[in-house]
Amino acid sequence: MATEDTTTPATATKKPSADGKPAVEDDEDPKHVPDMALAQDLYLLELAQSKPEEVPDVAEVRTRVLASIKADKAEPLYTSVCVEKLGWPVDVALQAELKASNEAELSGIEEQLRVATESSGDMEVLDALIAREKFYARIGNKTAALAAADEILAKPKISTGKKIDAVMDKVRLGLFFRDPEATKENLEKAKKLVEDGGDWDRRNRLKVYEALALITARSLKKASELLLDCIATFTCVELATYRQFIFYAVVTNLLYLERTKLKKKLVDGPEVIAVLRDLPALGRLLNALYDCDYRAFFHALVEVTPDLTRDRYTAPHVRIVVRELRVLVYSQFLESYKSVRLASMAESFGVGVEFLDKELSRFIASGRLSAKIDKVGGVVETSRPDTKNAQYQEVVKEGDLLLNRLSKLARMVDF
Known about the structure:
The chain has 415 residues and is mainly alpha-helical. The protein has 20 helices and five strands.
Protein backbone atom coordinates (compact mmCIF):
# COMPACT_ATOMS: atom_id res chain seq x y z
CA MET A 1 0.00 0.00 0.00
CA ALA A 2 1.50 3.30 -1.03
CA THR A 3 -0.61 5.55 1.12
CA GLU A 4 -0.32 3.67 4.38
CA ASP A 5 3.37 4.40 4.83
CA THR A 6 3.22 6.27 8.13
CA THR A 7 6.89 7.13 8.50
CA THR A 8 7.71 8.47 11.94
CA PRO A 9 9.46 11.81 12.35
CA ALA A 10 12.67 10.03 13.21
CA THR A 11 12.82 8.08 9.97
CA ALA A 12 11.36 10.82 7.83
CA THR A 13 14.60 12.75 8.12
CA LYS A 14 16.76 10.10 6.51
CA LYS A 15 17.81 10.13 2.88
CA PRO A 16 17.08 6.95 0.94
CA SER A 17 19.79 4.63 -0.28
CA ALA A 18 19.68 2.92 -3.65
CA ASP A 19 17.47 0.16 -2.27
CA GLY A 20 14.79 2.65 -1.32
CA LYS A 21 15.39 2.53 2.42
CA PRO A 22 16.47 5.42 4.66
CA ALA A 23 20.20 5.45 5.17
CA VAL A 24 21.71 8.86 5.87
CA GLU A 25 20.63 10.89 8.87
CA ASP A 26 19.94 14.53 8.17
CA ASP A 27 21.28 16.39 11.17
CA GLU A 28 20.36 19.85 9.93
CA ASP A 29 16.60 19.43 10.24
CA PRO A 30 15.54 16.92 12.91
CA LYS A 31 11.91 17.23 11.86
CA HIS A 32 10.35 18.63 8.74
CA VAL A 33 7.27 20.78 9.22
CA PRO A 34 4.48 20.69 8.46
CA ASP A 35 4.31 16.91 8.81
CA MET A 36 3.10 15.54 5.45
CA ALA A 37 2.38 12.11 6.98
CA LEU A 38 -0.10 13.91 9.24
CA ALA A 39 -1.63 15.60 6.18
CA GLN A 40 -2.16 12.15 4.63
CA ASP A 41 -3.84 10.86 7.79
CA LEU A 42 -6.10 13.91 7.95
CA TYR A 43 -7.14 13.23 4.35
CA LEU A 44 -7.98 9.62 5.27
CA LEU A 45 -10.24 10.88 8.08
CA GLU A 46 -12.04 13.11 5.56
CA LEU A 47 -12.34 10.17 3.16
CA ALA A 48 -13.78 8.00 5.93
CA GLN A 49 -16.68 10.44 6.32
CA SER A 50 -17.79 10.06 2.68
CA LYS A 51 -16.48 6.56 1.87
CA PRO A 52 -16.03 4.61 5.10
CA GLU A 53 -15.42 1.38 3.18
CA GLU A 54 -12.17 2.85 1.82
CA VAL A 55 -10.75 3.44 5.33
CA PRO A 56 -11.39 0.30 7.40
CA ASP A 57 -8.50 1.33 9.69
CA VAL A 58 -10.10 4.68 10.57
CA ALA A 59 -9.73 4.12 14.34
CA GLU A 60 -5.99 3.55 13.94
CA VAL A 61 -5.67 6.64 11.72
CA ARG A 62 -7.54 8.76 14.26
CA THR A 63 -5.21 7.55 17.02
CA ARG A 64 -2.17 8.51 14.93
CA VAL A 65 -3.58 11.97 14.21
CA LEU A 66 -4.32 12.67 17.85
CA ALA A 67 -0.86 11.46 18.88
CA SER A 68 0.78 13.73 16.27
CA ILE A 69 -1.26 16.72 17.37
CA LYS A 70 -0.31 16.16 21.00
CA ALA A 71 3.37 15.67 20.13
CA ASP A 72 3.46 18.83 17.99
CA LYS A 73 1.29 20.83 20.43
CA ALA A 74 -0.75 21.74 17.35
CA GLU A 75 -3.70 23.61 18.86
CA PRO A 76 -4.61 25.63 15.71
CA LEU A 77 -4.65 22.41 13.64
CA TYR A 78 -6.71 20.60 16.27
CA THR A 79 -9.29 23.39 16.37
CA SER A 80 -9.53 24.26 12.66
CA VAL A 81 -9.31 20.76 11.18
CA CYS A 82 -10.21 18.15 13.76
CA VAL A 83 -12.97 20.07 15.53
CA GLU A 84 -14.37 22.42 12.88
CA LYS A 85 -13.80 20.37 9.71
CA LEU A 86 -13.95 16.76 10.90
CA GLY A 87 -16.52 17.43 13.59
CA TRP A 88 -14.67 15.94 16.55
CA PRO A 89 -16.15 16.77 19.95
CA VAL A 90 -14.03 19.41 21.63
CA ASP A 91 -11.68 18.18 24.33
CA VAL A 92 -11.58 21.42 26.32
CA ALA A 93 -8.78 20.27 28.60
CA LEU A 94 -6.58 19.20 25.67
CA GLN A 95 -7.32 22.40 23.78
CA ALA A 96 -6.38 24.54 26.79
CA GLU A 97 -3.20 22.52 27.39
CA LEU A 98 -2.08 22.86 23.77
CA LYS A 99 -2.87 26.58 23.70
CA ALA A 100 -0.90 27.23 26.90
CA SER A 101 2.04 25.28 25.53
CA ASN A 102 1.94 27.26 22.27
CA GLU A 103 1.88 30.58 24.12
CA ALA A 104 4.83 29.59 26.30
CA GLU A 105 6.89 28.37 23.35
CA LEU A 106 6.11 31.43 21.25
CA SER A 107 7.04 33.69 24.15
CA GLY A 108 10.43 32.00 24.32
CA ILE A 109 11.00 32.42 20.58
CA GLU A 110 9.99 36.09 20.72
CA GLU A 111 12.43 36.62 23.60
CA GLN A 112 15.15 34.91 21.58
CA LEU A 113 14.38 37.23 18.67
CA ARG A 114 14.42 40.32 20.93
CA VAL A 115 17.79 39.42 22.43
CA ALA A 116 19.24 38.62 19.01
CA THR A 117 17.99 41.93 17.59
CA GLU A 118 19.41 43.95 20.46
CA SER A 119 22.75 42.29 21.09
CA SER A 120 23.58 39.71 18.42
CA GLY A 121 24.29 39.58 14.73
CA ASP A 122 22.21 39.01 11.62
CA MET A 123 22.64 35.24 11.74
CA GLU A 124 21.18 35.00 15.23
CA VAL A 125 18.23 37.16 14.21
CA LEU A 126 17.66 34.98 11.15
CA ASP A 127 17.81 31.83 13.28
CA ALA A 128 15.11 33.23 15.56
CA LEU A 129 12.92 34.19 12.59
CA ILE A 130 13.30 30.71 11.12
CA ALA A 131 12.45 29.15 14.50
CA ARG A 132 9.25 31.21 14.63
CA GLU A 133 8.26 30.22 11.09
CA LYS A 134 8.91 26.53 11.85
CA PHE A 135 6.90 26.82 15.06
CA TYR A 136 3.84 28.20 13.27
CA ALA A 137 4.15 25.57 10.51
CA ARG A 138 4.42 22.75 13.06
CA ILE A 139 1.29 23.74 14.99
CA GLY A 140 -0.75 24.28 11.82
CA ASN A 141 -1.18 28.05 11.89
CA LYS A 142 -1.04 28.57 8.13
CA THR A 143 -1.57 32.34 8.05
CA ALA A 144 1.06 33.07 10.71
CA ALA A 145 3.54 30.65 9.12
CA LEU A 146 3.24 32.30 5.71
CA ALA A 147 3.65 35.75 7.29
CA ALA A 148 6.70 34.55 9.23
CA ALA A 149 8.24 33.19 6.01
CA ASP A 150 7.62 36.53 4.31
CA GLU A 151 9.41 38.28 7.17
CA ILE A 152 12.44 36.04 6.56
CA LEU A 153 12.37 36.86 2.84
CA ALA A 154 12.18 40.57 3.60
CA LYS A 155 15.51 40.55 5.45
CA PRO A 156 18.14 42.40 3.38
CA LYS A 157 21.12 40.22 4.30
CA ILE A 158 19.98 36.70 3.54
CA SER A 159 21.56 34.12 1.26
CA THR A 160 19.84 32.76 -1.82
CA GLY A 161 19.78 29.34 -0.20
CA LYS A 162 17.86 30.62 2.83
CA LYS A 163 15.44 32.46 0.53
CA ILE A 164 14.80 29.25 -1.41
CA ASP A 165 14.24 27.35 1.85
CA ALA A 166 11.69 29.92 3.03
CA VAL A 167 9.78 29.84 -0.27
CA MET A 168 9.87 26.04 -0.36
CA ASP A 169 8.42 26.08 3.16
CA LYS A 170 5.55 28.14 1.77
CA VAL A 171 5.06 25.64 -1.06
CA ARG A 172 4.94 22.84 1.49
CA LEU A 173 2.32 24.72 3.50
CA GLY A 174 0.25 25.08 0.32
CA LEU A 175 0.49 21.34 -0.31
CA PHE A 176 -0.31 20.50 3.32
CA PHE A 177 -3.45 22.64 3.37
CA ARG A 178 -4.33 21.82 -0.27
CA ASP A 179 -4.17 25.44 -1.39
CA PRO A 180 -3.41 25.21 -5.14
CA GLU A 181 -3.14 28.98 -5.71
CA ALA A 182 -0.58 29.51 -2.93
CA THR A 183 1.30 26.40 -4.05
CA LYS A 184 1.53 27.55 -7.66
CA GLU A 185 2.49 31.12 -6.78
CA ASN A 186 5.28 30.14 -4.40
CA LEU A 187 6.48 27.35 -6.66
CA GLU A 188 7.11 29.88 -9.42
CA LYS A 189 9.04 32.07 -6.98
CA ALA A 190 11.14 29.11 -5.85
CA LYS A 191 11.93 28.10 -9.43
CA LYS A 192 13.10 31.63 -10.22
CA LEU A 193 15.34 31.70 -7.13
CA VAL A 194 16.79 28.29 -8.00
CA GLU A 195 17.55 29.44 -11.52
CA ASP A 196 19.31 32.52 -10.12
CA GLY A 197 21.62 30.54 -7.84
CA GLY A 198 20.23 27.42 -6.23
CA ASP A 199 22.49 24.48 -5.41
CA TRP A 200 22.03 20.96 -6.80
CA ASP A 201 20.17 19.59 -3.77
CA ARG A 202 17.56 22.35 -3.68
CA ARG A 203 17.17 22.20 -7.46
CA ASN A 204 16.62 18.45 -7.27
CA ARG A 205 14.16 18.63 -4.38
CA LEU A 206 12.21 21.38 -6.10
CA LYS A 207 11.51 19.00 -8.99
CA VAL A 208 9.62 16.75 -6.57
CA TYR A 209 7.72 19.75 -5.15
CA GLU A 210 6.72 20.72 -8.68
CA ALA A 211 5.80 17.14 -9.60
CA LEU A 212 3.42 16.76 -6.66
CA ALA A 213 1.88 20.15 -7.39
CA LEU A 214 1.39 19.07 -11.02
CA ILE A 215 -0.29 15.84 -9.91
CA THR A 216 -2.64 17.94 -7.81
CA ALA A 217 -3.37 20.09 -10.87
CA ARG A 218 -3.82 16.94 -13.03
CA SER A 219 -0.82 17.75 -15.25
CA LEU A 220 0.28 14.15 -15.07
CA LYS A 221 2.54 14.04 -18.13
CA LYS A 222 4.84 16.82 -16.93
CA ALA A 223 4.77 15.36 -13.43
CA SER A 224 5.81 11.95 -14.78
CA GLU A 225 8.88 13.46 -16.47
CA LEU A 226 10.02 15.23 -13.30
CA LEU A 227 9.46 12.16 -11.14
CA LEU A 228 11.34 9.92 -13.55
CA ASP A 229 14.27 12.34 -13.52
CA CYS A 230 14.54 12.13 -9.71
CA ILE A 231 14.34 8.36 -9.15
CA ALA A 232 18.09 7.91 -8.69
CA THR A 233 18.66 11.19 -6.83
CA PHE A 234 15.63 11.50 -4.53
CA THR A 235 16.31 13.38 -1.28
CA CYS A 236 12.98 15.16 -0.80
CA VAL A 237 12.02 13.30 2.38
CA GLU A 238 10.14 16.32 3.74
CA LEU A 239 7.36 15.75 1.19
CA ALA A 240 7.14 11.98 0.79
CA THR A 241 8.82 8.73 1.68
CA TYR A 242 10.77 7.04 -1.08
CA ARG A 243 8.08 4.36 -1.32
CA GLN A 244 5.39 6.99 -1.91
CA PHE A 245 7.62 8.74 -4.43
CA ILE A 246 8.14 5.53 -6.44
CA PHE A 247 4.39 4.91 -6.32
CA TYR A 248 3.76 8.30 -7.96
CA ALA A 249 6.59 7.82 -10.45
CA VAL A 250 5.38 4.41 -11.63
CA VAL A 251 1.68 5.30 -11.82
CA THR A 252 2.24 8.48 -13.85
CA ASN A 253 4.89 7.02 -16.15
CA LEU A 254 2.77 3.99 -16.99
CA LEU A 255 0.53 6.40 -18.86
CA TYR A 256 3.16 8.12 -20.98
CA LEU A 257 6.52 6.32 -21.07
CA GLU A 258 7.31 4.56 -24.32
CA ARG A 259 7.97 0.85 -24.18
CA THR A 260 11.78 0.86 -24.45
CA LYS A 261 12.15 3.48 -21.72
CA LEU A 262 9.57 1.71 -19.57
CA LYS A 263 11.79 -1.37 -19.63
CA LYS A 264 15.01 0.50 -18.89
CA LYS A 265 13.78 3.03 -16.34
CA LEU A 266 11.08 1.14 -14.44
CA VAL A 267 10.90 -2.59 -15.19
CA ASP A 268 14.67 -3.07 -14.86
CA GLY A 269 15.45 -0.01 -12.71
CA PRO A 270 17.21 -1.22 -9.53
CA GLU A 271 15.73 1.53 -7.35
CA VAL A 272 12.22 0.76 -8.59
CA ILE A 273 12.64 -3.00 -8.24
CA ALA A 274 13.77 -2.60 -4.61
CA VAL A 275 10.73 -0.53 -3.65
CA LEU A 276 8.20 -2.61 -5.60
CA ARG A 277 8.95 -5.53 -3.28
CA ASP A 278 6.85 -3.56 -0.78
CA LEU A 279 4.27 -2.63 -3.43
CA PRO A 280 3.52 -6.01 -5.07
CA ALA A 281 0.26 -4.97 -6.75
CA LEU A 282 1.95 -2.01 -8.44
CA GLY A 283 4.82 -4.27 -9.50
CA ARG A 284 2.36 -6.69 -11.10
CA LEU A 285 0.65 -3.80 -12.89
CA LEU A 286 3.95 -2.58 -14.32
CA ASN A 287 5.20 -5.99 -15.43
CA ALA A 288 1.83 -7.07 -16.82
CA LEU A 289 1.74 -4.00 -19.06
CA TYR A 290 5.25 -4.65 -20.35
CA ASP A 291 4.66 -8.41 -20.77
CA CYS A 292 1.28 -7.81 -22.51
CA ASP A 293 -0.44 -9.97 -19.90
CA TYR A 294 -3.74 -8.12 -20.05
CA ARG A 295 -5.67 -10.41 -17.72
CA ALA A 296 -3.02 -9.91 -15.01
CA PHE A 297 -3.00 -6.17 -15.76
CA PHE A 298 -6.73 -5.86 -15.07
CA HIS A 299 -6.44 -7.87 -11.85
CA ALA A 300 -3.53 -5.68 -10.69
CA LEU A 301 -5.43 -2.52 -11.64
CA VAL A 302 -8.27 -3.57 -9.34
CA GLU A 303 -5.74 -4.05 -6.52
CA VAL A 304 -3.99 -0.70 -7.11
CA THR A 305 -7.17 1.40 -7.37
CA PRO A 306 -7.77 1.52 -3.56
CA ASP A 307 -4.20 2.80 -3.13
CA LEU A 308 -4.94 5.59 -5.59
CA THR A 309 -8.17 6.39 -3.76
CA ARG A 310 -6.47 6.55 -0.36
CA ASP A 311 -3.68 8.88 -1.49
CA ARG A 312 -4.32 12.61 -1.07
CA TYR A 313 -2.54 13.53 -4.32
CA THR A 314 -3.98 10.89 -6.66
CA ALA A 315 -7.47 10.55 -5.15
CA PRO A 316 -9.09 13.39 -7.16
CA HIS A 317 -7.89 11.79 -10.41
CA VAL A 318 -8.60 8.09 -9.78
CA ARG A 319 -11.30 7.76 -12.42
CA ILE A 320 -9.20 9.51 -15.05
CA VAL A 321 -6.05 7.50 -14.28
CA VAL A 322 -7.92 4.18 -14.34
CA ARG A 323 -9.70 5.15 -17.57
CA GLU A 324 -6.47 6.17 -19.29
CA LEU A 325 -4.77 2.96 -18.22
CA ARG A 326 -7.63 0.96 -19.76
CA VAL A 327 -7.38 2.94 -23.00
CA LEU A 328 -3.63 2.32 -22.99
CA VAL A 329 -3.90 -1.47 -22.75
CA TYR A 330 -6.77 -1.67 -25.26
CA SER A 331 -4.69 0.34 -27.74
CA GLN A 332 -1.62 -1.79 -27.09
CA PHE A 333 -3.60 -4.99 -27.66
CA LEU A 334 -5.29 -3.79 -30.87
CA GLU A 335 -2.00 -2.61 -32.40
CA SER A 336 -1.13 -6.26 -33.01
CA TYR A 337 -4.27 -7.05 -35.03
CA LYS A 338 -6.04 -5.91 -38.16
CA SER A 339 -9.14 -7.61 -36.79
CA VAL A 340 -9.83 -9.77 -33.75
CA ARG A 341 -12.85 -11.61 -32.42
CA LEU A 342 -14.53 -9.79 -29.56
CA ALA A 343 -14.81 -13.03 -27.57
CA SER A 344 -11.09 -13.72 -28.02
CA MET A 345 -10.19 -10.21 -26.84
CA ALA A 346 -12.53 -10.53 -23.84
CA GLU A 347 -10.81 -13.81 -22.94
CA SER A 348 -7.39 -12.12 -23.09
CA PHE A 349 -8.53 -9.42 -20.66
CA GLY A 350 -10.49 -11.75 -18.40
CA VAL A 351 -13.74 -9.82 -18.79
CA GLY A 352 -17.16 -10.51 -20.26
CA VAL A 353 -17.95 -9.88 -23.92
CA GLU A 354 -20.79 -7.50 -23.06
CA PHE A 355 -18.58 -5.45 -20.74
CA LEU A 356 -15.82 -5.23 -23.35
CA ASP A 357 -18.30 -4.28 -26.07
CA LYS A 358 -19.55 -1.35 -23.98
CA GLU A 359 -16.01 -0.29 -23.04
CA LEU A 360 -14.70 -0.33 -26.59
CA SER A 361 -17.83 1.37 -27.98
CA ARG A 362 -17.43 4.24 -25.54
CA PHE A 363 -13.74 4.75 -26.30
CA ILE A 364 -14.24 4.41 -30.07
CA ALA A 365 -17.11 6.93 -30.04
CA SER A 366 -14.96 9.46 -28.15
CA GLY A 367 -12.08 9.02 -30.61
CA ARG A 368 -9.77 7.35 -28.11
CA LEU A 369 -9.46 4.09 -30.09
CA SER A 370 -8.97 3.77 -33.86
CA ALA A 371 -11.25 0.80 -34.43
CA LYS A 372 -14.81 -0.22 -35.21
CA ILE A 373 -16.97 -3.08 -33.96
CA ASP A 374 -18.79 -5.45 -36.31
CA LYS A 375 -21.61 -6.38 -33.96
CA VAL A 376 -23.05 -9.00 -36.28
CA GLY A 377 -19.77 -10.80 -36.84
CA GLY A 378 -18.55 -10.21 -33.29
CA VAL A 379 -15.29 -8.73 -34.59
CA VAL A 380 -13.23 -5.65 -33.71
CA GLU A 381 -11.57 -4.14 -36.77
CA THR A 382 -8.69 -1.72 -36.30
CA SER A 383 -8.31 1.34 -38.50
CA ARG A 384 -4.82 2.67 -38.10
CA PRO A 385 -4.51 6.37 -38.87
CA ASP A 386 -2.58 7.35 -42.00
CA THR A 387 0.37 9.12 -40.38
CA LYS A 388 1.94 10.41 -43.59
CA ASN A 389 -1.33 11.83 -44.87
CA ALA A 390 -2.01 13.47 -41.50
CA GLN A 391 1.44 15.06 -41.56
CA TYR A 392 0.85 16.30 -45.12
CA GLN A 393 -2.48 17.86 -44.16
CA GLU A 394 -0.85 19.53 -41.14
CA VAL A 395 1.90 21.02 -43.34
CA VAL A 396 -0.68 22.35 -45.80
CA LYS A 397 -2.70 23.86 -42.97
CA GLU A 398 0.32 25.55 -41.41
CA GLY A 399 1.39 26.78 -44.85
CA ASP A 400 -2.00 28.40 -45.46
CA LEU A 401 -1.76 30.18 -42.11
CA LEU A 402 1.73 31.43 -42.94
CA LEU A 403 0.64 32.73 -46.38
CA ASN A 404 -2.32 34.55 -44.81
CA ARG A 405 -0.04 36.25 -42.31
CA LEU A 406 2.45 37.24 -45.00
CA SER A 407 -0.40 38.64 -47.10
CA LYS A 408 -1.61 40.76 -44.18
CA LEU A 409 1.93 41.98 -43.52
CA ALA A 410 2.38 42.92 -47.20
CA ARG A 411 -0.82 44.98 -47.17
CA MET A 412 0.34 46.83 -44.05
CA VAL A 413 3.73 47.60 -45.65
CA ASP A 414 2.13 48.81 -48.90
CA PHE A 415 -0.19 51.08 -46.89
